[in-house]
Amino acid sequence: MRPLDPIKQEKILQAVFTVTGTHGLAGISIAGISNAAGVGAGTLYTYFKSKEEIIQAAYSGVEDKMTQKMYEQFDIQIPVKQSLKKIYINMLNYRLNNYNETVFIDQYIQSNYIQLNFSKQMSEFEQQNKPMYDLLKKGQNEGIIKIQPPIILISFFDGAVRSCSNGIVQKLFPLTQQIIDDCFDFVWKGITQ
C-alpha cells in the first residue's frame, strides 16, 4: 500500500470548510466534499472511513490551527486587559481571514457532532486553552475579573468575538480600529463589573 498524500488529505479537509461555507454543515455529503476537493469518492474513503470521520478530522485540525493563532505572542506577564485584548484581536483576525472554517466550527459546536466525543473534546479544549484559563485566574486573583467559573467567561468571550466578526463580514458595520476597540471594551466591561 502506498503512503497517503498529506496534500490530498488537506484538500479534502479544506473541501469540508468550503461546502459548509456554502451549504452549511447539514449540506455536507461525500459527493459534495469529493467535488470540492477535486478527488473521487473512492479516494475519500482511502483517507477516511466515513463522512463523520472527515468532519471530526476537520474539526480537530481547524480547532488546533485556530488555537495556535489565538495565542500568538501571548504573554501572561503583561496586564490582564492587554493580554485579553491580544487574544481578542488574534481570534477576530482568524475569523475574518478564515471565514468558511469559522462557519464550520460554529455549526459543528451547535450540532450533534460535538456529542460524539464530548468528554475528549472538552479535555482537549481545556488543555489547548490553558493560557486563557491561567489569564482569567490571574484576573480573578487580582480582583479585576469577578465572574466564575472560567468556562462561562470563555463562552462569553468567544460569543463576543463571533458576533463582532459576523457583523463585519455581513457588513453591518465596518472593520475599523474604533469598532475593534469598542467591541473589546464591551467584553471587558462585561467580565469586570
UniProtKB/TrEMBL annotation:
Chain ranges of the HTH tetR-type domain: 6-66
Organism superkingdom: Bacteria
UniProt cross-references to PROSITE patterns, sorted A to Z: HTH_TETR_1, HTH_TETR_2
Keywords, in A-Z order: DNA-binding
Record carries keyword Transmembrane helix: no
InterPro entries with a match to the protein in the record: BscR_C, DNA-bd_HTH_TetR-type_CS, Homeodomain-like_sf, HTH-type_Tx_Regulator, HTH_TetR
DNA-binding region: 29-48
A GO MF label: DNA binding
Protein name (record): TetR/AcrR family transcriptional regulator
Biological source species: Dyadobacter psychrotolerans
Lineage of origin: Bacteria, Pseudomonadati, Bacteroidota, Cytophagia, Cytophagales
